[in-house]
């Protein structure tokens, strides 16, 4: 398999691809995501990122992805600032929410898109630990203002579904999509 093109600047997505041995080149899209209002927009964002980069790499598999957190019907994307990060964490505290990642693969004029959903429960968070976590800077580039793979791991009581989806790249779904085109990572 020629290296896949990852249309993302996410260090977490890059690390997951390295972890499972998928060769790739990171070529972040400049696509400006609109505010998410529905699940179709999550898939559209992933697809638009992939389309932008696929124009320069028509013979390569191009992967676009977008992740959003949904709590009580409200879409939580990346916080704009520390204050919004604190608000999101207070909203998620002691509650269940969904993490949804949309994947879009483009290759030689073909397209595949799918979404993965994982249910996550955070324990009750205390105001000082929310403030300390936000002060660390870690939540500012993450949907829902937390990173399960980082310091916020201690906030998670349980989850149902794909852990890697919560990190930002559902690996089993990605491999399943590649298999639809008879592409093996082995």
Notes on the structure:
With 186 residues, the chain is of the alpha/beta class. The protein has one domain: Alpha-Beta Complex (Maf protein), CATH 3.90.950.10. It contains 6 helices and 7 strands, in the order βαβαββαββαβαα. Strands 1, 2, 3, 4, 5, 6 and 7 form a 7-stranded mixed beta sheet that branches. α3 packs across α4. The protein is elongated and about 50 Å long. The mean pLDDT is 96.
Main sheet, how many strands, which sense, barrel? 7 strands, mixed
Choose one word for the global shape: elongated
Q: Return the CATH topology.
A: Maf protein
Question: What's the average pLDDT?
Answer: 96
What kind of oligomer do you see? single chain
| Number of strand segments | 7
Helical percent range? 25-40%
The helix/strand order is EHEHEEHEEHEHH
Radius of gyration: 16 Å
Poorly predicted regions are none
Tell me the CATH architecture: Alpha-Beta Complex
Q: What fraction of residues sit in β-strands?
A: 25-35%
Q: What is this structure, in a nutshell?
A:
The chain has 186 residues and is an alpha/beta fold. It has helices at residues 11-19, 39-54, 82-92, 127-135, 163-167, 171-180; strands spanning 4-6, 24-26, 62-71, 74-76, 96-107, 110-122, 156-160.
